[in-house]
Write a structure and sequence with these properties.
Residues 347-557 form the Glycosyltransferase 2-like domain. The chain crosses the membrane at residues 93-112, 132-157, 538-565, 577-596, 616-639, 668-688, 700-720. Keywords: Membrane, Transmembrane, Transmembrane helix. Residues 1-63 are annotated as: Disordered. It is a single chain. With 730 residues, this protein is of the alpha/beta class. The strands form four sheets. Strands 3-4-16-11-13-9-5-6-7-8 form a ten-stranded mixed beta sheet, sandwiched between helices. The chain has a three-stranded mixed beta sheet with strand order 10-17-12. Strands 1-2 form a two-stranded antiparallel sheet. Among the domains are: 185-345, no CATH class; 503-721, no CATH class. The protein contains 24 helices and 17 strands.
Length: 730
């Protein structure tokens, strides 16, 4: 038995999709005249409020892109937004990034100056071969210097911009400067896999449909479009349960075959992009067939669509038939239902299967996108949707909130907003403009060859002249799930590292022929995107390389300094480097963020200090224990090794000590073997079992400590960060 709230939603699913005006009287023979009204640039004509046909709401431009025109055109909303003050451009981010870049250059210059002094003393210049790694030193230090500057800014800089609007940031919700009955149709797109219907998907749909009902009352229309990658993989019972749920809620869905079925390929290491592409392709083909149906009175009459029955949902009848035709063209490969809900609106809200949304989010997004037509993606900052409430989820929840606050502050300072792939509103026309023809000859929106498909789309949009904006006025109304296990969190960091590597570099095998840098990265660096954003992006990318290299650097530091091998002053000792990172990221960083939260009136200073320092020991183990896994992901890309990741766990899976021990060994045994060997080496070389000149004992604690911390953290990562290990029940 469903809860009362869900029962109410079950009997009201048609309300959010109802039109401000009945469309049944508007499927007229005048549709054939609409093709002559298209604009010269290939864009669809303005929407006619008095007469609307399928040809009006769907057009195909000269490039073969299908334009969905449900409800009013965004252009008409933009007309109503004329006279609004132009949003200011903030320059704090540019200034801070400029200072950070200057510090990084200073570090390189100091290092080169040391080599020059030494060469003038001993007359040896072979050490200048080390200058080859100066660009690497600069790139890796960028994130460090950026964090240093941010600490100063958080403590002493201005913060009022956090509660204002600017080019890349919205701290204030848009006002109603036009008629609400002209709000555009919004498609809520949700890719799902094999998540639990009751525990994950249903709560998300309940939250979304509350927002849809609110939007309908305000004069807008909306629909839910599910890209269900699990439908054809589930048992018959679970499959039928999903189908009934989708039908009862008037949800449109598309499901593709399992990987390998009759040669079908689910492309990509992370299947989300190809899943969404498959659904969008089928929906667009349905639109084309729908247009053909509307132009053929005989076929419409055969379906009983004659415009005489005011109670018939003619659009629904035609859409369902067009979808049936589109599915038939796949020879039974695709499964789909709910043709009317599959029609793409001018705005797409992209959500995950575990999400919550605020009730007025659709109206606010429609207004903001109408007022600022240059914005292609409106990314909302999210709070955390907790389900397990054990200490690891609490840790990741705190870290997610902190990262989102840091991003919001950066965007308020003028930083270009990131696109994180969910809880974001996308302008459909802009997405089509940056679509590309893939290697298989098909036109696609999402890149299936990139792990970070969201970042790839963001770069293409920015290169095309669009902007991305971060919004916080929902005040935590958007919620997202976080990693429930340390395994999932490590997978997430591996995906990010792999994505950073593939967006910057080609695989090594292509370097001689095409050069080291990826074509997209070269295009981005040469684009009109602000220079400070390019530097900030480099800092972010290279932070993963810094994490990846920390383990190997600790080993080299142990060997070079422990065996007293002569090193140049260009070399920065491992303990000094560790101390600098410890003071900046774990001490000053936490203190500065606590002060920022206090200055923003998010919470009191004492409460903020406790919250920011509470999980410090766990984060020390977490970040020190990531290096081998992150380096594995980067090397997998560079050496073209086929690496893949399992789907993120969305529901709590209870476990205990006896189940977790085998799982930990299976996932982390290479790490345990490597670290076990190094522990043995450190023990042996601290005794008299080796010649006196090779003894590295307690006198060399500054040499031993960085490596011991790395090794210890890698061993403790799957143990200390696993809350199920303390449960010994059978």
């Amino acid at each position: 038995m469903l809860p009362v709230e869900q029962q109410q939603l079950e009997v009201m699913p048609q309300f959010p999709r109802s039109r401000p005006r009945p469309l049944s009287s508007k499927f007229s023979s005048d549709a054939s005249d609409s093709s002559g009204n298209e604009k010269a640039d290939g864009q669809a004509p303005e929407h006619d409020n008095e007469k609307t046909s399928i040809s009006d709401v769907v057009s195909v431009d000269g490039d073969g892109k299908v334009e969905g025109k449900l409800s009013a055109d965004l252009g008409s909303l933009e007309d109503g937004a004329q006279g609004l003050p132009r949003r200011p451009m903030r320059f704090e981010a540019a200034i801070f990034m400029g200072i950070a870049t200057g510090f990084s250059f200073l570090f390189v210059i100091i290092a080169l100056d040391r080599m020059l002094d030494e060469s003038m003393v001993d007359g040896t210049y072979i050490r200048w071969a080390l200058a080859a790694v100066a660009p690497l030193l600069f790139c890796v230090s960028l994130f460090f210097t950026q964090a240093l500057v941010n600490c100063v800014f958080y403590t002493f800089g201005p913060v009022s911009q956090f509660y204002t609007n600017s080019k890349y940031y919205s701290g204030i919700a848009p006002t109603s400067d036009f008629n609400v009955d002209k709000l555009p149709h919004v498609t809520i797109q949700m890719p799902v896999y094999k998540e639990s219907l009751e525990a994950t998907i249903m709560p998300s749909i309940n939250s979304i449909q509350k927002a849809m009902i609110s939007y309908a009352r305000q004069g807008g229309t909306s629909s839910i479009f599910v890209n269900d990658d699990g439908m054809q993989l589930l048992s018959q019972e679970l499959r039928e349960e999903r189908m009934r749920f989708y039908e009862n809620r008037n949800i449109g869905w598309v499901a593709r075959p399992p990987h390998g079925t009759n040669g079908f390929v689910r492309a990509g290491r992370f299947k989300k992009a190809s899943n969404m592409n498959y659904g969008l392709t089928l929906a667009l083909r349905m639109e084309e067939l729908l247009e053909e149906l509307d132009k053929d009175p005989a076929r419409k009459a055969a379906l009983g669509v004659d415009g005489l029955d005011p109670f018939m949902d003619e659009e629904g009848v035609l859409s369902d038939h067009a979808l049936e035709l589109a599915v038939n063209e796949t020879n039974g490969e695709a499964w789909a239902s709910g043709g009317k809900a599959l029609r793409i609106g001018e705005v797409i809200l992209l959500v995950d299967s575990d999400t919550q949304v605020p009730e007025d989010c659709l109206r606010d997004a429609a207004r903001e996108l109408a007022q600022t037509p240059e914005v292609a993606i409106l990314q909302h900052g999210s709070d955390v949707l907790q389900v397990a409430h054990h200490y690891f989820e609490n840790i990741t929840a705190y870290f997610t909130r902190r990262v989102n606050q840091a991003i919001a502050m950066a965007c308020a300072n003028g930083e270009v907003a990131p696109f994180v792939g969910h809880n974001a509103f996308l302008r459909w026309r802009a997405m089509q403009e940056v679509a590309f023809v893939d290697s298989d000859g098909k036109r696609k929106i999402w890149s299936e060859s990139n792990v970070s498909e969201d970042f790839d789309l963001s770069l293409r949009l920015q290169v095309a002249g669009y902007t991305i904006r971060w919004a916080t006025y929902s005040k935590g109304g958007f919620k997202e799930g976080v990693s429930l296990t340390c395994d999932d969190e490590m997978n997430r960091w591996q995906k990010y590292a792999y994505g950073a590597s593939e967006l910057m570099f080609r695989p090594l095998v292509q370097w001689l022929r095409h050069g080291p840098f990826a074509a997209q990265f070269i295009k981005f660096m040469g684009s009109r995107v602000p220079l400070y954003y390019k530097m900030s992006l480099l800092a972010y990318y290279w932070s993963y390389f810094g994490i990846a290299g920390s383990f190997l650097i600790s080993v080299l530091n142990y060997v070079l300094l422990g065996f007293t091998i002569r090193v140049d002053n260009y070399y920065l000792k491992g303990f000094e480097l560790f101390l600098a990172c410890l003071v900046l990221f774990f001490a000053a960083g936490n203190l500065a963020h606590a002060i920022l939260e206090y200055r923003l009136k998010i919470r009191g200073l004492g409460e903020s200090l406790v919250a920011n320092f509470r999980w410090l020991p766990f984060f020390l183990i977490f970040f020190q224990g990531l290096s081998l896994s992150v380096s594995y992901a980067i090397l997998a890309h560079l050496f073209s090794y086929n690496i893949s990741w399992s789907a993120t766990v969305k529901e709590v899976e209870s476990s205990n000590f006896f189940r977790e021990v085998p799982r930990i060994w299976k996932r982390f045994y290479p790490t345990f073997i490597i670290c076990g060997i190094l522990v043995g080496v450190m023990i042996v070389f601290s005794t008299n079992l080796v010649p006196r000149g090779f003894v590295i004992d307690g006198r060399y604690w500054a040499v031993i400590f960085p490596l011991a911390l790395q090794v210890g953290s890698h061993i403790l990562y799957p143990i200390v960060l696993n809350p199920w290990l303390v449960i010994f029940s059978y």
